[in-house]
Request: fold
Amino acid sequence: MKIGVIGGGAAGYFSAIHASGKGNKVTIFEKSPKLLSKVKVSGGGRCNVTHRPLEISKLVKNYPRGEKFLKKVFRHFKCEDTIDWFESRSVPLKIEADGRVFPCSDDSQSIIDALQLEASKLKIEVKASTGIKEVQLNGDSYLLISDKGEFLVDALIIAGGGYPKVEGYAFMSNLKHKIISPIPSLFTFNTPQEPIKKLMGISMPDSHVKIEGTKLNYQGPLLITHWGVSGPAVLKLSAFGAAWLFEKKYQAKAIINWNGDFNEQKYLDHLVQYAKSHPNRKVSNYALFEIPTRLWEYLCDKSEIDLNQTFNSLSKKQINKLVQNLFCHILSVNGKTTFKEEFVTAGGISIEEVNPETMESIFHPNLYFAGEVLNIDGITGGFNFQAAWSTGYLAGKSSVKITI
Reply:
């Protein structure tokens, strides 16, 4: 069989590797001169290759789009399988405290080398700078048209990644698959009018962030930046709220509880008790609730508290204002910023038109999809790569009709 794979990223390489064997001729077509470019920059150049093993029912909760679909996919290839695959190819991995999995080398090149070495061993042909401009049906085969010629393949795996605009999917228009219009996922919140930006660099380990007027919320590390707020709590919230925020043109109110371990009453009780126990301490010298000093001073100022005041001099009104700023701090969001180079899209090929047991098109035999080209996306933490490995594995194995 001749098997074509469109896309030289994580899903493309993994598809090609698992489509190889039994005399098959597998070719990867990549429009860019760079291969595995997203793997290279992931995790700040370390490559967050997957997440610590989780029960499938818990694993799929990390995907704003594709949860039910992936429940079936992960039965074939899950986080444990990813870890085993790379470690069996001399890439030792480590699980960090937050569950993210990285190569022990802390270098994404280790992952790239493993994939390319395996592809080389299997004699997979890689055609870089060869963008496919059109896919034509040719019976049960597929004719791929590019600037560098035409290629006829018996089976085709489309793993070209997500496209920021629907026009990016035009090359597969002949396939009649429904395209969910792409929108950004995983982005930070811009707060251009908020003075909190002057506190850039301050982070909180476990803040709770929600979007006013919705049920959207997330808890985790939060970072103040020169353009607004970021960190895992915001990024993950942006993924689950991608469609709502897109519709609202990225204008919203973010409500922050700076320390997720405290509710409103707990803040109040603690402040009142602290004032009784330490009445003569200056407010400015004793930041509470594990709040960094600069952020504490900022919140006190917003609560109309003079930093020279002692705790026993705080009025009931000042204490109540401080509790509100700790528990329910409102920031006006106006715009977004893509998170570093790790651009992720929500949208793509409708998963209703793909068999989750094989990744095969329900319309065309021998046509498969893998990775972010599908309307599947995960939050940060290695989940997007895991979806790429799992769908790539399944598409590759299915393309040669191997029993799995």
Q: What stands out?
A: The domain at 187-338 is CATH 1.10.8.50 (Helicase, Ruva Protein; domain 3). Residues 383-399 form the longest helix (17 residues). The mean pLDDT is 96. DSSP finds twelve helices and 20 strands in the chain.
